Amino acid sequence: MLELSGVDRFFGERQVLHDVSFAVRPGVLTGFIGANGAGKTTTMRIVLGVIGANAGKILWDGRPLDKNTRRTFGYMPEERGLYPKMKVLDQLVHLGRLFGLPPSEAADRALRLLTSLGLQDRVQDRLESLSLGNQQRVQVVAAILHDPSALILDEPFSGLDPVAVDVMAGMLRARAALGNPVLFSSHQLDLVERLCDDIVIIDEGRVVLAGDSEQLRRERAGSRFRLVVGGAADRPDPADDADDWLRSDPRWKVLELEGPRALVEILDPAHEQPLLAKALEQGPVHEFTPVVPTLADIYRQTVR
Amino acid sequence: MTAPAPTTPAAPLPGAWPLIWAVARREIVVKLQDKAFRVSTAFLLLMMAASVAIPQLLEEDRPEYTVAVVGPSASSMVTEAAALASAAKDDSGVPGALITLVGMDDLSKAQEKVRTHQVDAAVTGDPGKGFTIIGAKEIPSELSRLFAQSSYSQRLSDGLTRAGVDADAVNKVLRQAATPPVEQLEYPDAEDESVAMYLFLAFAVVFLMTNMIFGVSIAQSVVEEKQSRVVEILVAAVPVSVLLAGKVIGNTFMVMAQLLLLLAMGIGVSTAMGESVIIDLLAQNSAWFVLFFLLGFVMLACLWAVAGSLSSRLEDLNATTVPMQMLLFIPFFVALYLPETGRVMTVLSFVPPFSPMVMPRRLLVGNAAWWEGVVACGIIVVVGALLVGVAARLYQGSLLRTGSRTTLRAAWSSHVQEREALAD
């Protein structure tokens, strides 16, 4: 397991990471979510040792991460990074050497991985002559060439077409299935929700939420209800009424309100039935459903 | 949180040298595959061949003269002069020339030929009464010297024969009395120095050009890695110092290979042309050339890498490499234009970055002892080692800074913070 504990980082006078702590479990995908400039890339670079931390620790299986272990990590930087003018196979073999692989083994693995991604005919082409999606695939091969013990990817899905997204997702799942921790950042919340078991949300350099995605969503379910009331002919504008009786009650909070529809969050589970009772007092209730928030909901809620 | 810990065994960390070699190897392979590099190497080789061969070809051109002769005596005198001229060697004191004879019936026709410049001179007379040499405005100096010699020997032979001395004996004595062969213990100063300076100029130009070409290419390859962000993957895999060392070693390897090719070309061409002065000078000084070249290049190579790492984009490279160009051009002009002897020259021949160019000149011209060369090399090594340390720190401090150009001060001070990440 990969853990960050109390990581601080300054750029000059500006503190960009505040006490960042979270865990990346082996065998599952962990999504790293945050706005631009929230500190995702900086955090990942610190894990990879590309830059230093001003305080805090990176732990690997409970012990401080050492250089030799870190060398076994796979990394895909945000703005990508390979030699544009080098041939695909040549540069993978070169990177393999830097990771300590014998050249023949590096070539074997690279060919195998490239073939599995459908790039077997492009191995002798210069990287820059490949399409963006194919360059991305080569980048993935570079990250997993040395059979990494952990995988850290910065925005691996950005700029990918739907097919490439599926290929990438399959790749990440396969790595996780091998029992490795896999951490990746993304702006695509629906994608993270679909793929990830764990999520970490970072905002302005602080981790605001971290844990099992399902659990986090379920914890937030049961407190939100979708309510649809009224609709009868004698109530031309039920929203006005709803506004009064809903908003004035301190036992719940109105998140959205549109005509007869409202999204209400109760502040105590015990207030569920009173909410329904009060709604019935106003007239017919067409819908009263507990809402399981999407990741996007949680994100907006925590980051706001 | 119950999943088992990953069992993937950590790949063994190779020592630093295999990693440095891997980085160096890429630099070499990329260079060899680079068309611009191959073309420029071929161009340098051609330049080298031409700069050795062309002076030789020009020198080989002997002057050609046509001489009108009136009468058999004059004809035999000029024939002897022509024989002397065609057999003349560089260092025998007899001028070399190609003389063609034109026989004339009478003097007035010969004079007419001279006046109309159809011939360079006319000769009449005999050994008894003496020869007359007729020219237009002037007689080419080679001709008058050749004629003086042959007419002297003809008149002497004629006089002695008439005095009763056996003709064969006279000829034998005269042959023995011909211009004595010259055995030179040292080359004449003037020629030696001009050839030495010529050779030094070639060395200095090659040093300047290859340093510029390879220096810029080191800087470019650093920026390329920065700009394409591949540097992040590299730094995650290997220490920054390994990257720097690999780059410098790879490019040094290529520079030295190119230099040795150039030297081989120079020695080969001058051997083929029989240019003994250049061969000897090259043989005596090649080791110095190679040594100063190697040390001078390595000393600056690390700084070129820093110049590259200070900029984030190829477009910024011009600005950050200006100081490097200064470090090459100023010593170049100093070494070229400083007076031969003098204290400034002597002092600068020990001071980097001047010494890699100034000391070879002093050694080549012959006014520095071998130990002075050794001391200058030692100083370059010490200064080079210091610069490598400084460069490694600056490189480390600036390599991962993107955005705008990095100042030296920022690179120097940010090193400490980043090193923590890389040193554990």
What does this protein structure show overall?
The complex is a heterodimer of chains A (304) and B (424). In chain A, the strands form three sheets. Chain A has a six-stranded mixed beta sheet, sandwiched between helices. By secondary structure, chain A is an alpha/beta fold. Chain A has helices at residues 40-48, 67-70, 88-98, 103-116, 132-144, 162-177, 189-195, 213-220, 238-247, 272-282, 295-303, and strands at 2-11, 14-24, 29-33, 55-60, 63-64, 73-76, 150-153, 182-185, 198-203, 206-212, 224-229, 252-258, 261-266, 285-290. Chain A starts with a strand and ends with a helix. Chain B is mainly alpha-helical and 424 residues long. Chain B folds into two domains: 16-55 and 193-423, no CATH class; 63-177, D-Maltodextrin-Binding Protein, domain 2 (3-Layer(aba) Sandwich), CATH 3.40.190.10. Chain B has helices spanning 16-33, 35-60, 72-87, 107-115, 141-162, 167-176, 189-227, 230-237, 240-272, 276-310, 317-337, 343-348, 355-365, 370-398, 408-423, and strands at residues 64-70, 98-104, 121-126, 130-134. In chain B, strands 2-1-3-4 form a four-stranded mixed beta sheet, sandwiched between helices. In chain B, strand 3 and strand 4 (130-134) form a beta hairpin. In chain B, helix 1 crosses helix 9, helix 7 packs antiparallel against helix 11 (317-337) and helix 13 runs antiparallel to helix 14 (370-398). The radius of gyration of chain B is 33 Å and the shape is elongated. Chain B starts with 15 loop residues before the first helix and ends with a helix. Mean pLDDT of chain B is 80; it is low at 1-12 and 419-424. At the A-B interface, helix 1, helix 2 and helix 3 of A face helix 1, helix 8 and helix 15 of B.
- Residue runs with pLDDT of under 50 for 5 or more positions of chain B: 1-12, 419-424
Sheet having the most strands of chain A = 6 strands, mixed
Number of helices of chain A: 11
The helicity of chain B comes to over 70%
* Percent of residues in β-strands of chain A: 25-35%
Class based on secondary structure composition and strand pairing of chain A: alpha/beta
Report the strand count of chain B: 4
Main sheet attributes: strand count, strand direction, barrel closure of chain B: 4 strands, mixed
Largest interface: A-B, 54 and 41 residues
Task: Give helix % range of chain A.
Answer: 25-40%
Shape descriptor of chain A reads elongated
Give the rounded overall mean pLDDT of chain B. 80
- Strand elements of chain A, count: 14
> What is the approximate shape of chain B?
elongated
The helix/strand order of chain A is EEEHEEHEHHHEHEHEEHEHEEHEH
